[in-house]
Amino acid sequence: MLLRALAAAVFLSCINAVALAQSNKVDVTGVWIFTVESPAGKSNPTLTFKQDGEKLTGQYSSQLMGQADLTGTVKGQAIEFLVSATVQGTPIELKYTGAVDTKDSMKGTLSAGDFGNGTFSGIRKQ
User: Fold this and answer.
1) Is the full-model pTM beyond 0.70?
2) Residue boundaries of the structural domains of the chain
3) What is the per-residue DSSP string for 54-83?
4) Does the domain spanning 26-124 belong to CATH 2.40.128.120?
């Protein structure tokens, strides 16, 4: 009897955990303002994300790089995306890797290859 009650409690706990995980799915769709700190200095690009399941697409806009497409993924709280652009005739690829902290904030690291590494934080534009 005790074993059945324990098994039922574990089963219900698992169902609740799955339901909670599904209700807490991350969706970063929308406009975000980033603060980026790198060897090139501090910048505040605007990113527009469109999320479809785990797939991420969108636009990156900054004074230095202009407009560029972005592609990536969102898996749980983890976010990763690439921005490829040409700056003054030089191709550059920015790789952002981080975590979504809340529905309106994220932070992580930036890798720009030969141009160095940095950090970023992002806030959803209201």
Assistant:
1) yes
2) 26-124
3) TEEEEEEEETTTEEEEEEEEEETTEEEEEE
4) yes
